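so i finally got all the pieces together for this one. its four components total, 426 residues if u count the protein bits. some of the lines might not be protein, just check the labels. i wanna see the whole assembly predicted at once instead of chain by chain like last time, that was a mess tbh
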Amino acid sequence: MKALSTKQQHIIDFIRHSLVERGYPPSIREIVSECGISSTSVADYNLNILEKAGYIRRHPEISRGIELLTRSPAPGYLLHIPIIGQIAAGEPIPVPTPDTWDTIASSETLGVTEDLTRGKEGVYALKVKGSSMVDALINDGDIVLMQYVNVVENGEMAAIWLKAEREVTLKKFYAEPGRIRLQPANSQMKPIYVRPDNVEIQGRVIAIIRRLV
Amino acid sequence: MKALSTKQQHIIDFIRHSLVERGYPPSIREIVSECGISSTSVADYNLNILEKAGYIRRHPEISRGIELLTRSPAPGYLLHIPIIGQIAAGEPIPVPTPDTWDTIASSETLGVTEDLTRGKEGVYALKVKGSSMVDALINDGDIVLMQYVNVVENGEMAAIWLKAEREVTLKKFYAEPGRIRLQPANSQMKPIYVRPDNVEIQGRVIAIIRRLV
DNA sequence: AGCCAAGGCGAACATTAGTTCTATAAAAAC
DNA sequence: GTTTTTATAGAACTAATGTTCGCCTTGGCT
């Protein structure tokens, strides 16, 4: 593939600049004045070359319909996860309510890229209180990303409310005949077994973030 | 601040969708047909409300001049941290070289907001290999955010190369008279003591990210 | 010289798309 | 009940913007 001319490189840079700074792509005439081109047809000509070369995608008949295909500076979209409360051994975890999804209204949010959530819906965050979950390799002050679900697959890490013990715990969940095995993330520790009617799944753990220093 | 109507929420979602899927913002008439509005003036009316509320910025007289201000609650700027290698018990950690800072060139990057790095310089990421660091509450597959430093304050978590043992470990660092105390993050575990000339600090641990599911 | 392709230029043209004006209906305030 | 506010409709107007076409320059080739 042929190398880009300096003019074409300039156009690409300007498109990227426009997207970052203003949130929308440039028009052909803006490219003309920014890149020192003297006619819209020249810009059109070079844009067609850039499209053939795979740098952009043009959407005909659409104003500013230039899509930048090089995702170099966009490894994933930035999401705002609401931090709706805390999780501790002795209390059920907070359940998301419709208004807690309003990320603007939420007092605190956590910015993560969507490669962490992998497009999941209903994701929220909780702050860990206390050291009761070190067997799940989770420490006081950690942030856990949760997804609001009532069932989990075998082997997934879940937030589980043990009714009899009145205690919430984060463990890997395995449904076995007549019982449920709860396996700590720390493989050196032994699993515990509980009766199915004693567990209530309160969510699935998506990720854990620990900030030190 | 007043809550958004479902229609306004729909408009915001569609603008975001358009930007992600097509790379450019929608026109007013596209919003009209997508959101079931029957007049461009109604869309205009609601867009003005959204602009007053700080959700978007409109650029007058410009086609598709709608900028999504998703940074409204100031979640911090999105940074691209290069993942330059892995960390395992038996080998020194990779040292960043000038070209590994070129995030575009780096094969893999991690998107994090700067509230995680708190503006620190020289931050890079490593992938944890093996289960040798469970005493630091770090598991196989975790991502550790490191800062490239040679000295750390007492109490900070550091990557430490034990020369005699030929082993890297993540521990809290405490310089004591005549010896150095390395304290596991898991407070239930006992510290180890080593001679000062046996330790080489390879970096400071900024944060840990664990992705499950 | 003659030919041809790449690249550039300028203007005209046709849509697209933002703006504005007036009218209407429902809800809220008085 | 009347007025004000909020929200919706439809249409006309105008600016912004993509597209196209003829013409020109330059450089390589025969």
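The domain at 6-68 of chain B is CATH 1.10.10.10 (Arc Repressor Mutant, subunit A).
Residues 71-75, 102-106 of chain B have pLDDT under 50 and may be disordered.
anyway lmk what u think
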